[in-house]
Specification:
Alpha-Beta Plaits, 4-stranded antiparallel sheet, elongated
Length: 151
């Protein structure tokens, strides 16, 4: 978070510097077209330089993907949220992410979700939590099915 704020400030500073440079060129009586082209080239280079120096990895490595399993969690109480589900599953192992499904139109919870867990802990979680009571509902915990394109 802090590095993205710094990156945004550097981009704004670079654009301001380019604007000042273009204004200086116009003051030297260069044509507006020449000043615009020079300003565009310099600002593009400045933004690329800022992004190159402050870039963060944007994707998780494939090695991490191979060590996780996604579990389907069904029959959830509508009052639970992601943090409650995460806390419950963390008792048995590492939880990478929790996604509870909502209706697109109304925003209401649908009563099911997905928990991405460490592959080594998945079987234990399924065997321990499937058909157990959680917030007065009987959980259904299974391996999530692969998602096909368009679904």
């Amino acid at each position: 978070m802090k590095s993205s704020l710094i990156r945004n400030l550097l981009v704004i500073l670079a654009i301001a510097a380019v604007g000042f440079f273009v204004f200086s060129l116009l003051a030297l009586n260069l044509s507006a077209n020449v000043a615009f082209v020079l300003g565009s080239l310099i600002s593009g280079g400045a933004v690329a330089l800022v992004n190159m120096n402050t870039s963060e990895p944007s994707v998780v490595s494939s090695a991490d993907d191979q060590n996780t399993t996604t579990l389907y969690i069904g029959n959830l109480a509508y009052k639970v949220n992601e943090s409650v589900v995460r806390q419950h599953f963390t008792k048995l192992g590492e939880v990478c992410s929790v996604r509870l499904m909502h209706d697109k139109r109304t925003g209401k919870k649908k009563g099911f979700g997905f928990v991405e867990v460490n592959s080594e802990d998945a079987d234990t979680m399924i065997n321990t939590y499937n058909d157990t009571e959680f917030y007065e509902r009987t959980l259904k915990v299974r391996l999530a099915k692969e998602r096909k394109n368009g679904e």
